[in-house]
Request: fold
Amino acid sequence: MKNTTIVLLIVFVGVLSLLLYSQTAALREQRRQVQEMNAKLESISKTTSLDLQGKCAKQAQEAFKLRYPERASFENHYNTKLDKCFMQVAYVDKYGVSVDIIDAFEGKNYAVYTAVFEKGKGSQLALCNVKLPSDAHGEFTKLLPSFETKECVSRSQFDALVNKYYME
Reply:
């Protein structure tokens, strides 16, 4: 009886060992497949992002040509978190400087900075505000219809807000 119990115990341990080996091999294969799929997904994501950045650049250039004078300049930026294409348009003349953040496809203005030059005083702030996405205090999803407008008091504060919410 004692020998039979020992033999059964050895057989049971052997069967458990085979099951453990089989499960370990299956888990290893699943990990390999997940890594392979993650690599493919990352590759697709990079390709899509580059494609969207290219479309953004093209649209920003077209919108800029239609709306702004020759002395203005622009930069475009595709924001992946917001899934939006923004243009930062800067215009400087003898009267002052103006910087706008605009959706290149929809034409909506999300931020404006304007300073007027005054003789003997240099640049004087005239207008500075940035519309914050309504979920700006949490996770970004997409721009929502309601905005909180943040007033700013300097070009550096304007740039900091724009970089944080639109040009990241």
User: Anything to note?
Assistant: Residues 113 and 128 are 4 Å apart (CA to CA).
